[in-house]
Amino acid sequence: MVTLESDFESKLEQALLDDVEQRLRDEIGPALEQAARENWQAYAARNDYDIDHVWEEVEGPFVERDGDSVSLRIEWPGLSALFEFGVSPHTIEGNPLLHFYWEEADQWITTDEVNWGSETGGIPESRAIRNALNDLRREVVR
Question: pTM to 2 decimals?
């Protein structure tokens, strides 16, 4: 008969968490960042967007361990969500007035509102991060 140490479960749990933490840091985090980067780059190319800052200014991956859990966090720069989820055409109202340079008209514009996206149809969603997560989930579940 085999006798297990009294703290067997605790040691097993810590060993498992150690393994998960290392895999997140060494494999999964970098793979997720790379997959999202490739998705962002393909999206930028499809839409002729100059958004290199989205993948160049990414921070992480950060792996954090707290008690009996391990988490992975990657931070993309502000406003990345506008591209990730897309933006429907909408009206921007200024109070005071809006001032901006309109390149096509080669002039500065002053107005009280702008129908943003009326000509472009808004910003299509990229799904760069969500698709990278889904691809990674399929790999991890195998």
Answer: 0.78
